[in-house]
Amino acid sequence: MSKKTHAQLKKDLLSYVGEHCDGVDLDVEVSPRWDRLCFTFRWEGFDDLLLEERFRKVARLVPGDYFEKHCQGAVWLELTPGESIDEYLKQPRSEDVDADLPDIWRQLGEIEFFSRLEDELVRIPPKDCPDDLSVSKRVLRASNLSEDDVRRYCLAFIRQDVYTDWEVLKAVRPIAESAPKPTRKVRGKKGKST
């Protein structure tokens, strides 16, 4: 672990993250809750991001060698302004949707999500394409899904280690389209299953 002071760590991390997350704040302390170093980022830009998206947004901005030398083993929290640690910890994670994946893949097919996402993405010049799931979320919300369903579907993408809209098409679409379809019982004469 790092031999840098908390103030040095804060300065370094803010220099990496602050350039891309304007207005981000950071507390660096040994947390009594976890009894180890804790980096608590607060930023309004985390508002529409799931927990794993938040971590990815911040951690990928930190050079790998710096992360390994000074941040390995620390607790990372990415909070919106006013969000408590307990509220943060209660939010769902990608592993929470494992049992629902077959249904999620089927439901995405039913709403023609992948075709609609592709239609949206081809309209965006490559240099302007977002490096996140924002277009996927917009397409899902336009399907009149509940926010819980939008969250579940995005967690399913993340469960496949997919964090961008183009990756959804490249990696998730084949999984969803090849997923077994539910079998339906066919009723024969006199209501007996055949």
Low-confidence stretches: none
Shape type:
elongated
User: What order do the helices and strands follow?
Assistant: HEEHHEHHHHHH
Radius of gyration over alpha carbons? 21 Å
- Spatial sequence of strands, sheet with the most strands: 1-2-3
Mean pLDDT: 92
Biggest sheet overview: 3 strands, mixed
Count of DSSP-assigned helices: 9
Helix content range:
40-55%
Distance between the termini: 64 Å
Structural class: mainly alpha
What is shown here, in short?
The protein is mainly α.
Describe this structure in words.
The protein has a three-stranded mixed beta sheet. The chain is elongated and about 55 Å long. It has two domains: 6-89, GMP Synthetase, Chain A, domain 3; 94-178, no CATH class. The chain has 194 residues and is mainly α. α6 (113-121) runs antiparallel to α9. It contains nine helices and three strands.
Characteristics:
single chain; 194 residues; mainly alpha; GMP Synthetase, Chain A, domain 3; three-stranded mixed sheet; 9 helices; 10% strand
Which SSEs are present, and which pair or pack?
Elements: H1 6-17, E1 25-31, E2 36-42, H2 51-59, H3 64-71, E3 75-79, H4 85-89, H5 101-110, H6 113-121, H7 134-142, H8 147-159, H9 165-178
Parallel strand pairs: 2-3
Antiparallel strand pairs: 1-2
Helix pairs in contact: 6-7, 6-9, 7-8
